[in-house]
Amino acid sequence: MAMVTSNGNTLLKAVKPFKTGWKVEIKVLHSWTQHSSYGGGDTLEFILADVTGDKIHRTCK
Questions:
Q1: CA angle, 26 as apex, 22 and 31 as ends, to 5°?
Q2: What does pTM read for this prediction?
Q3: SS (H, E, C) the chain
Q4: Which pLDDT band, with edges at 50, 70 and 90, does 27 fall under?
Q5: Does residue 8 contact residue 49 with C-beta atoms inside 8 Å?
Q6: What's the sign of the alpha-carbon dihedral 4, 5, 8, 14?
Q7: How far is CA 35 from CA 9, 39, 42, in A?
């Protein structure tokens, strides 16, 4: 399977940390706020999936 879809989006399995200009199309499967009294404070957590069903967990501070 190609690492880029027909409309030019990159699949999640092809995303690497050395590049910051990825164009991905994802669906938010689940989101929640994580409260923390230790460290940097509250975060917003996401479970994301692309068109092939590959999933990734992301955190936003």
A1: 120
A2: 0.78
A3: CCCECCCCCECHHHCCCCCCCCCCCCEEEEEEEECCCCCCCCEEEEEEECCCCCEEEEEEC
A4: very high
A5: no
A6: negative
A7: 33, 10, 5
Mean pLDDT score, 9-33? 91
**Closest-CA residue to 33 (of 24, 43, 18):** 43
Q: Which residues contact 61 (CB under 8 A, 6 or more apart)?
A: 40, 41, 43, 44
Residues 52, 11: contact at Cβ < 8 Å? yes
The per-residue pLDDT for 2 is: 62
